[in-house]
Every structure is written in C-alpha cells, then in structure tokens.
TrEMBL record, chain A:
Pfam families: Fer4_8, LUD_dom. One of its GO terms (molecular function) is metal ion binding. It comes from Brevibacterium rongguiense. Residues 84-312 form the LUD domain. The keyword Phosphoprotein does not apply. PROSITE patterns: 4FE4S_FER_1. InterPro entries: 4Fe4S_Fe-S-bd, 4Fe4S_Fe_S_CS, FTHF_cligase-like_sf, Helical_ferredxn, LUD_dom, LutB/LldF, NagB/RpiA_transferase-like. Residues 494-519 have a biased composition (Basic and acidic residues). SUPFAM superfamilies: 4Fe-4S ferredoxins, NagB/RpiA/CoA transferase-like. This is (4Fe-4S)-binding protein. Residues 494-542 are annotated as: Disordered. Residues 329-398 form the 4Fe-4S ferredoxin-type domain. GO terms for biological process: lactate metabolic process.
UniProtKB/TrEMBL annotation, chain B:
Residues 3-85, 140-224 form the Cysteine-rich domain. Pfam families: CCG (PF02754). GO terms for cellular component: cytosol. This is (Fe-S)-binding protein. The lineage of its organism: Bacteria, Bacillati, Actinomycetota, Actinomycetes, Micrococcales. It comes from the Bacteria. InterPro entries: Cys_rich_dom (IPR004017). One of its GO terms (molecular function) is oxidoreductase activity.
Length: 542, 272
C-alpha cells in the first residue's frame, strides 16, 4: 500500500491495541460462551433496531453522511495546521497543551499532572475520577496509574461494571455489553464496599447503587480525566457527549481536568458540530440527541476546573494518516454502529479482537495504528465475511470492507517480502493454482473436462468430508455433487459454428486494435468500446 | 439486443443449469445471447483473500474477454461477481499501476448487469408469469445476498420478480438481511464463526416452512444448501429442509418445462 511522507516520522501505536492470540482461535473460544452470545444478540439487536428507526426519521441522512465524511477528510488534509491553531486557541484560553507520540508518553504526562495536583490520601495514594474515554483505554492509562499509586475511578456505569469486575471492555460504547443484569448485580455486590446486600436486578436499582457509590467521589476528588468527542481548532473548545451526567460532573466539579484526545478528533469550527451532533447520537445510542453535551474552552474564572490540560495523542495516527487509503479510518467518531450491525462481532463479542477497538472498525483501525507488520494483528483483517453492513451503517462512510481487503493484501505482501514468494499454506497453493487457471477461459475449459470423473467419484447426496483446508468447509457444509458437464462445454457443443465465428471476430478486432496502436496514427481510445464490425446495426435491428 | 453472458466460474463449473436458465429467459424475450469464450472468473476469490497480484491476470482476462466481444449489455446471474467488476477491478488495476486497464475495467463494468437488474431496469420485465411464462407452484424463502443488496442496491428486484411467478409464494426468513456466513475464504479462514452464522440462517429458513430457498448468488446458495443438507444428515427424522435454487431457474421454469423438486435433482442441499 502506498504511503505518503507527511513530514513527520511515524510512530507505531502502542498500548491496548494488540490481539491476544489469532482471531479464529479466540473467536472459537468465545463462541462456546452461550451466555455471552445471548447477551450480545439481545443487546446488539436492540441498539440496531433503535438506530434504524432514528436514522429513518431523517430525509437527509445520506447527505449528512457525505457531509460528515467530507468534513473529516478536510480535517485530515489540514491536520498539522489545525493542530497548531487548536494549540494556540487552547493556550490563549488558559489551558495547557501536551503532545504525546505514543501510549507511554501520554501515560507519563498524565501521571506527572496527577502527581502535581491530586493530594495523597491516608493510604499514600492519589485518586482521580474518569469520564468514559476510548483514548485512555487505548493507552492503558488506568493500569499504568494503578502501578504508580494512583487510583482511577471510572464513573460511567458500564465502565464501572467493567472496572469492578476486573474485566476488559468489549464494545466501545457499551463496554459491558457482554454482561447481563444478573452478572452486574454479582459484580456490584463483590466490588462495591457500600453495596446494599439486598440489591435487586432491576436496571433502576443497579443504576441507583452506582450513583450512590460514585456521589462521594464526584464531590471529593480533585482531579478528573476525560477523553473528547470533538476538539474545535478555531476556539480551542473541547467536548464530551454522554448519557449519564457523570461526564458533566467530571468536567465541572474537580479543580484539575486532564483530557486525552486523539489528534484526529479536531473539527475546524463550532459550526462543523451541526452535522456531527446529528450523526453521532443517532448512530451510537439510537437517540435523536444525547442527554448531556458538555463543551469547555480553557479556564473560566469562578466556574469549573482551574487547571485545564489536554494531551494530544498520536499513537499511530500519523502512521495511519500517511496511508493514502487507510487514512479514511481516522474519520471514525467512535459511534459503534459498525459493531452493532456486524454478524461476526455479534457472535464473537469484542474480546476476540484483543484491541480496545473491536468489530469492523477495530479490524482496520488497529492494524493501521500498530502497523501491518505487527504480527499480532495479522488475523484481524480476516475477521469479516465482507457482508458490507458496517459500511452501510458508518455515519462517516468509511469503506471498511474495501480497507479490510487492502489490509489483507498488505499483510500478504509483508509476509512474502519476509519469507519469499513461495506459497506457504494450502490455501496459498490453491489460490496460486487458481490464479493461473482462472486467467484464461481455455484453461478453465480444460479443467472442466474433469467434471464427469469428479461426478463419478462423488456420492449422490453430495460430498460430506474432504481432507486439508477443504475440511474446514465440509466440517459444517455438504458440497453438491458436481455436474456432468460445465456450462461452457454445453454451450460450445450447442453453438459450435457461432463460437467459431465469434472467435474469428474477436481475433480480427484484437488485431485491428494492435495495428492501430502500432501505427499510432490516432491514439487508440483508451477505454472506448471495441471497434464494432459493419454488421453491428443489422444485428441490433433484427 | 445482443446480450453477452458472464456465466461466472461457480455457475459455469458447478451450476450450469443456472446459466442455461439465464439464456432461456433472455431468448424468450427475443434477445440474442452470446458467450465470450475467453471469460473465466471475476477474481473475487483472490481479491478478497488479499492476493492482489494474483488477481491481476484474472481481472485482465475478464476485461479483455468482454471488451473484445460484441454486445449491447453483459449480464451475470450473480450480484457478487457483478459488484466485483465495478467495485474491485479498477482498484486491482490501479494497485498494479495499470491505469489503462483500470479505465477499461470501468467501461466493462458499466455495461455489465446483474440478471434482475437487466430484466427490471433494461428489459422491462415486471410480470414473470405474463412475460416469461414462469410457473413454480411452491413457497420460496428469499435470501438477498449481501453484495447484491449493499453494493449493487438491487433492492426488491429479485423478490419482486419471484413474486410474479405463477403459483409462487415468497416469504422472508427472520433476519432476512443477515449474511449467511459464506464470505469466500472467510468460510475456511474463520470456519467456526462462519458456521455460527450459517446455523442461524439455516434455522431461520427452516422456520419459514418454505420448500425452497432462492436468491441471486450461486455461491451463497451453495453455502446455505450445504448447511441445510448437513442439518438434514444429522437430523434425518425431521422434515426435508428447503433446497436452494437460483432465482433464474425459478423464472425459467414453465408449465411445459417445470422445475420439479425431487430427490434426484437435489444434491448437497442444492437443486441442480
């Protein structure tokens, strides 16, 4: 795949961006978890239906998608300039900008800021509260802070469930989508020191328990960490959109607010939000508008945090940006519509993808951030049947299926350059043979001469078991008995004379084209239809 | 009109009756069908497996086979292969640095239609029974294949045509727009996930009570048929599951030459 040098050395992404084991292996394990599949099917079906209804309300949905994609492409094309503009505006508004090349740098910056602003408690540790953020999940911030005597408390209900269950998120919007309410009750009883032992399983009760648990933290903690849905270059404004109000409390109550934002989250002006505030809630939660949209621009005297920081995170984004096809993945606004419609995600869940970005977008974004030569993520682009549901659902029109195929190719090119061109697997051998066979009709015809024999050797009711890689097919699908004769062979028997005529004409036309090209009298029409024979019109009118 | 048939490799080698049915339908409408003999395959198997360099000669062959042929329209009984022509061939040519082939591929793709597209948009078929004499007195569970649905935007073209076949009743399985799990090499690279998707599709189809499952892509139908057949092998006591049959064969069936559902014709879950 061609990459463009954009004036900066690219740094591969690090952090929680790697598959644990090859996707098929983990997927097989996850498929065995019946509870997981039930939870996932129920949840994704519900969100899917809601999204479809909300999207159907808008007559200009397709125009909105086009606008969203175009706006993001403009941002990506102007990124260096917009980042500088953002830095200037954010600084002018009283905030401090930090730049992080990768996960380690970002984590270290945040740790330094927390140590400067959060007091030590009686256990000799510091505390921060957090708004749900994919960027901080990506860099593994919570784990890093914990290792440095800082306790980060997630305040989003689902993130809290994941955190208390010592679990990992399996969805970017609904991180605990793999849990049902009975499991959540258990997690709360085990993980919340102040949980009521008579806690029920009603969503209302569970939400109330978390609310009580978190209230004190909101009122006493001095430092909050957030991500950002949008950053406005012109004004230096940051924004978080959410449903629970925990975000609003985190960005207003503490003294210090630290935001970790991927560099691709910028929009040029406040006006650009108009499109995205319609696209995002409908695509993510299936709502017309999310309940809480918070915007803050630096420090406002007497109101809200007095120390405002932003950590601008690269972590592989420049690498993805340099990829002329892959850069479209940076349009992603983390809405999760693609995973909610993905039949593969629905069956395996998010953990199978290893990376914090699961589902279709994860299968392209993860390798684009880490580099396709990172062996760990080489199976992710294959985690799709290419059904295209993700592309249809994407509010910023990321052509995920095409990108998956391009990444598959890129992976193969990398493998071949490292291990030589010789086919390695049975599938490689089969495809190499098929390429030769299928690039010529005559070779196909020859191959098809074997059909009567194949038919003779096949059981009448179809083929139930084959060796090798074909066994992966016959493990669950019977192959029909082949026909006695191919269509091609039937046709040429039926149309012997016509076929001869057809071949003669084709030869003449090809010769004519070659002659034309050689003589160079007039450049052959590059893509024009083949020159037609004189009798063309007669044929047409007959 | 002269209509060039792109049979597609799977129909050519495994489901020749689908191509014969396509020829029969078009001839019934008074058109001349030709078969450019150099044709082989659209190359999707290689493209989707990430073997762009190996796909290149396949794509080139297809473009040359069709640009040299004399026809008004080309047609294929497959949404997936037609979609590959427009969505993937130029990409492969460009990847290999062959800009000339890319623009020629775009030309060929622009003249190639999926069968229901040609019948509906170009040839004006709105009533299969009246215009083609189609007769098929069975309940049909219709499966829209992903690429026809999402890349070609075929919409209801195939099921609308099926609905106008004399005697046919068309029903939709639950989650009708969900992928069957085939995905080409996906089915062997991720066989467990593919099977999980197939299992749900098979159950949904059986629950319709239909006697056949029809759609526009032989590859998906082979996958679904193989799953239906396997289920029948494992649970022989249950009622015979629907056989899969391409919609071209349903449209081609008439009172004089009916398509009969008998054991003889059903192999591996597919009617051939």
């Amino acid at each position: 795949m061609s990459t463009t040098f954009i004036g900066m050395p690219t740094v591969p992404g690090t952090g929680n961006l790697f598959e644990r084991a090859p996707f098929p292996q983990v997927a097989q394990h996850e498929l065995g978890n019946v509870q997981l599949r039930t939870n996932l099917t129920k949840a994704t079906t519900a969100i899917r239906t809601k999204r479809a209804a909300r999207v159907a309300e808008l007559g200009d949905w397709e125009d909105l998608r086009d606008s969203g994609a175009a706006a993001k492409d403009v941002v990506l094309a102007r990124l260096p300039e917009l980042l500088t503009q953002f830095e200037a505006a954010f600084t002018a508004a009283g905030g401090t900008v930090h730049w992080a090349r990768d996960a380690q740098e970002a984590n270290a910056i945040v740790r330094g800021l927390v140590e400067d602003s959060a007091p030590l408690n009686e256990d000799g540790r510091r505390e921060v509260i957090k708004v749900k953020s994919m960027a901080t999940q990506e860099i593994g911030l919570n784990e890093y802070l914990e290792d440095h005597d800082i306790d980060a408390y997630e305040t989003d209900l689902a993130e809290l469930i994941v955190q208390l269950g010592h679990d990992k998120p399996s969805h970017i919007l609904v991180p605990a989508i793999h849990r049902n309410r009975h499991e959540i009750r258990q997690i709360f009883l085990r993980g919340m020191e102040d949980a009521d032992p008579n806690l029920g399983t009603e969503p209302r009760e569970l939400a109330e328990a978390s609310r009580k648990h978190l209230r004190k933290k909101f009122l006493t903690t001095k430092v909050a960490i957030s991500g950002a849905n949008f950053g406005i270059a012109e004004t230096g404004t940051l924004s978080v959109v959410e449903s629970e109000g925990n975000g609003r409390m985190c960005v207003t109550l503490p003294e210090t607010l630290i935001t970790v934002m991927g560099i691709e989250k910028l929009l040029p002006t406040i006006d650009d939000l108009g499109v995205f505030m319609q696209l995002l809630p409908r695509s993510s939660t299936g709502e017309r508008m999310n309940p809480y949209s918070s915007f803050w621009t630096g420090v406002t005297p007497g109101d809200g945090p007095r120390n405002v920081h932003v950590v601008l995170l690269d972590n592989g984004r420049t690498r993805a940006l340099a990829d002329q096809h892959g850069r479209q993945a940076l349009r992603c606004i983390r809405c999760s519509a693609c995973m909610n419609v993905c039949p593969v995600y629905e069956r395996t869940g998010g953990h199978a993808y290893g990376s914090v970005y699961p589902g279709p977008i994860g299968a392209i974004l993860t390798p684009l951030l880490t580099g396709t030569d990172a062996e760990e993520n080489s199976t992710l682009p294959y985690a799709s049947s290419l059904c295209g549901a993700c592309f249809d659902a994407c509010p910023v029109k990321i052509d995920i299926p095409q990108m998956l195929v391009r990444l598959r190719n890129e992976g193969n090119v990398v493998k071949e350059s490292e291990h030589g061109r010789l086919p390695k697997t049975q599938l490689d051998v089969a495809l190499t043979g098929a390429s030769w066979l299928m690039s010529d009709g005559r070779r196909m015809a020859l191959m098809e001469k074997g059909l009567p024999l194949a038919k003779l050797l096949s059981p009448k009711a179809g083929i139930r078991s084959l060796p090798g890689i074909a066994g992966a097919w016959t493990s669950s699908r019977t192959i029909p008995r082949p026909p006695r004769q191919s269509f091609r062979s039937w046709w040429s028997a039926e149309h012997r004379e016509e076929a001869r005529e057809e071949r003669r004409e084709a030869r003449d036309r090809a010769q004519f084209r070659r002659f034309e090209a050689r003589s160079g009298a007039e450049p052959a029409p590059e893509a024009g239809p083949a020159p037609r024979s004189e009798n063309q019109h007669e044929t047409k009118e007959s | 009109m002269r209509i060039a048939l792109f049979a597609t490799c799977i129909v050519d080698a495994m489901y020749p009756e689908v191509a014969k049915a396509t020829v029969s339908i078009l001839e019934r409408l008074g058109h001349t069908v030709t078969f450019p003999e150099r044709q082989a395959c659209c190359g999707q198997m290689h493209i989707n497996s990430g073997k762009f360099a190996q796909a290149y000669p396949v794509v080139k062959n297809h473009v040359e086979a069709f640009e040299d042929a004399d026809f008004d329209y080309a047609v294929a009984p497959s949404g997936s292969c037609v979609a590959s022509l427009g969505h993937q061939h130029p990409m492969i040519a460009e990847y290999m640095g062959d800009e000339d082939l890319a623009s020629r591929a775009t030309q060929v793709a622009g003249r190639t239609y999926e069968l229901s597209q040609l019948l509906t948009d170009v040839l004006g078929v709105t009533d299969a029974a009246a215009q083609l004499g189609s007769y098929f007195p069975h309940t049909i569970a219709y499966h829209p294949s992903c690429h026809g649905m999402r890349l070609l935007r075929l919409g209801d073209r195939q099921s609308d045509l099926l609905q106008t076949v004399e005697g046919a009743v068309v029903v939709s399985p639950e989650n009708w727009d969900a992928c069957c799990g085939f995905g080409g090499t996906f089915s062997v690279k991720n066989p467990q996930v593919s099977t999980a998707m197939l299992t749900d599709k098979v159950e949904a189809l059986i629950n319709t009570g239909a006697s056949v499952c029809s759609g526009g892509d032989a590859s998906c139908l082979m996958h679904i048929g193989g799953g239906l057949q396997r289920r029948h092998e494992l649970l022989p006591a249950q009622a015979t599951p629907p056989a899969t049959v391409h919609f071209a064969r349903v449209l081609a069936a008439t009172r004089e030459h009916p398509l009969i559902l008998n054991e003889e014709l059903v192999s591996g879950g597919a009617l051939r």
